[in-house]
Amino acid sequence: MPEIHEARRRRAQEKIVEVGADAALITSRQNITYLTGLASSNAAVLIPADGAAVLATDSRYALAAERDCPDLELIIERFVETRLATEATTRGMRVVAFEAHEMTVQRHAELTKTLTLVEFGQAIEELRVSKDPTELELIATACRISDQALSDTFRLIRPGLTERALAAALDRRMAELGAARPAFDTIVASGPNGAIPHHSPVDRPLRRGDLITMDFGAMYGGYNADMTRTVALGEPAGWQREIYDLVATAQRAGIDAARPGADVADVDAAARDLIRDAGHDEHFQHGLGHGIGLEVHEAPLMGYGRTGKLGTRVPVTVEPGVYLPGKGGVRIEDVLVTGDSLHLLTKTTRELLVLLAMETFTWPPRTT
Asked: For residue 325, is the peptide bond before it cis, meaning its omega torsion is within 30 degrees of 0?
């Protein structure tokens, strides 16, 4: 879809003019994909303030670039940044904006041998915040795959299955449903491990009485999903129901607050204040949510101390949690798109699911 990427580059050119540069050298992988359509581990794009862009990548991606970027001038070169610096100089572009948050000191020193560099800030990331219909559909598809994978995996959850095996089952099912890969390393945290927000799955077997938190997502078409559900294996204890109900109520408040024009700190506070007032302030220390798209975590970030307001067509997560050291925890996370009405992309129920399978489970299943 070259016309989509061309329109994005035109918006980028307005940003280039604003910083007083002759061109911008884009080196962030996700920003290159956003502006050109090419997914490459070695590429850079030179966008002049006026005129056609130049894409450089190496021979491994030559055919993909010809296919995905037919409207761009293409240079096949291993050392993409220094080659584009030479091109900029040859074409009379003396002042070039660069992505300081992505550039290393060594690479910067090499480029300044021939160019005058000015910081571009996160100008392209700012353009990426509000998604176009194509992007929203890709994210929605990633979310549908994630929802279905969880639904299909519920039947496996029983005593004896390990955290690691449950994570692998989720990953495998997402792949079977069309995911390119998991959006990030799948989290499965059971029992006391649930008190660790980013616990890495281990060989701990699930046990009756556990709360089990699953945080995962599919990548589809380069775009990501991110969702979390906490379930109970067997009848939950009173304290487990209490913190689950608290997190669910806080999440509902955060979702209701996530509207265009809302201050991101206020959205965070809508959920955080409920958890604080219930006496669990110290048990919820991470931000309420984040934008999602080509990256799992991208602008806007919603947390205490964060600044800015939500726009329209912005997919964000809302993911409060309560984590009790030594006991366990609860997190519930959904993706919504800001707009005039509530538009949730993740559909799995947010009611506490109590899984009553009582038989011990061996993974992988034994064959006869």
From this structure: no
pLDDT per position as a tens digit, 137-153: 999 999 999 999 999 99
| Helix 264-277 and helix 238-257, axial crossing angle in degrees, nearest 10 | 160
Which architecture characterizes domain 133-355 according to CATH? Answer: Alpha-Beta Complex (3.90)
Q: For residues 74 and 303, give the distance between their C-alpha atoms in angstroms, rounded to a whole number.
A: 41
Q: Please state the domain extents for the chain.
A: 2-127, 133-355
Which CATH number applies to 2-127: 1.20.120.450, 3.20.190.10, 3.40.350.10, 3.30.360.10? 3.40.350.10
The string of pLDDT tens digits covering residues 262-273 is 999 999 999 999
pLDDT digits 0-9 by tens, 187-197? 999 999 999 99
Whether pTM > 0.90 for this model: the answer is: yes
